[in-house]
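Q: I have two molecules that I believe assemble together. Could you output structure tokens for the complex as a whole instead of separate predictions?
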Amino acid sequence: MIEIVDLWKSFGDNHVLKGISLAIPKGQTYVVLGGSGSGKTVLMKHVIGLFKPDRGRVFVGGTEISSLEGKALTEARQLFGMVFQGAALFDSMTVFENVAFPLTEKRWRERPRASEIRERVVEKLKVVDLGEEVLGRYPAELSGGMRKRVALARALVSDPQVVLYDEPTTGLDPITTDYVDSMILNAKRKLGITSMVISHDIASAFKVADRLAVLYDGHLAAEGTPEEVRRSTDPFVQRFLALWFAKQ
Amino acid sequence: MDRVRAAFEDFGRMILFAVEAAAWALRPPFRLDLVIAQMAFIGVGSAFIVGATGLAAGMVFSLQMNYALKQFAADGYVGGSVAFSLARELSPVFTALMVTGRAGSAISTELGTMRVTEQIDAMESMAVNPIQYLVVPRILAAILMFPVLTMVFNVIGYGGGFVMGVYVAQIPIGPFLEHTREFMEPSDILHGLFKAVVFGFIVSVITTWRGYAATGGSRGVGEGTTRGVVMSSIAVLAADYVITFIAVGT
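A: Yes, here they are, computed for all two components at once.
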């Protein structure tokens, strides 16, 4: 479903990605682990075309998204839903307006009727265990966990084929973290969605991943199933995972 | 040298941003509701401060002109000179500066906050072009509302000048109004309104750009807002000189 081939990206003298290649099969959850500032978010933003690579190619569903511009890129983005690190809900809009946004902003020929939009918003909020009582609230009136759930409902509302999660559990308490992990697993199981998760939360990563990669110094230091990554002999990967496994 | 180069690069990117906004303004969907909401924010929301500034400017200018002209026994010309100055200079420039302080700073802050909290990226990821959704309505609203606010300034400013001239400085009402008619041409009003359109474009492009290009968290948003207001104010004064020079020469 997603294929990244020899991806390079620099910002000035800061070489963030140095020849990343990976493939995510349809319906799988792929987690990219890495420390803060390792370039995980930059990698994800290439997948949805928010950044252009200096070198390399990004394919989504067979289309080379890294070469698209303008209208073609806008249309290709309809394949995606994205959950941002800080939820990135629109402050000036209510929960209903936020979740409905991808539908209300479709071209008028493709736009569902108002009653259908409401039905779909309520349905997706139900998927993330939120009721109709939150529809009229503003993001500032929600807790961090609720904001993440609303962001996930917004990412799912247009029935995307791919959902990208940027640090979905950062800043959440253990119970809400567990809840968000279940949401990611449910989205895969119930809706057959392909997911790419960017995280430095090792526990969550091992829980939701079908495949894992560890990003370090612009390279993938390890890549494979969670078990394969766990057995990696790469010194950084061993150091990165050691603290968490020592606690288990 | 690097700072000069960076400033030119930033200016170049702002020009490209304005061109991109102009291109998106011509493409559907046309979001009239967003333009109207911005017209209410920029126009209706700024009417009080513009009116208050107009009233103060008109009153003070009338008293100053009366003080100067009565030395030549020409105080009957106060009305004309107040109206003329307001229409061609004071109204468009003061309006632009006041709206920059009130609405321009809010625009930079709002877009800057949206940028650093990834709301603009989120919009883009949902296949909605943020320049078309966020920037175009603000530029169109400013271009439409700056002339309206300038007319508000003109009317209230002249009203203030009239009250001061006729009731405080005791200038006879006949010469006050007669010399206003004598001095003023419709082209004087149009000259000021043309300036207002240009200022609306300049202020909205600069303030939206400074918000849209903000980086580095809340500090970056603050810096972007300050730069937006300062750059807009300087650009308005520079554009005023250029337009006036082209229109009236030396």
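A: One point stands out. The interface with chain A takes residues 28-29, 113-114, 117-119, 121-129, 133 of chain B (CB under 8 Å).
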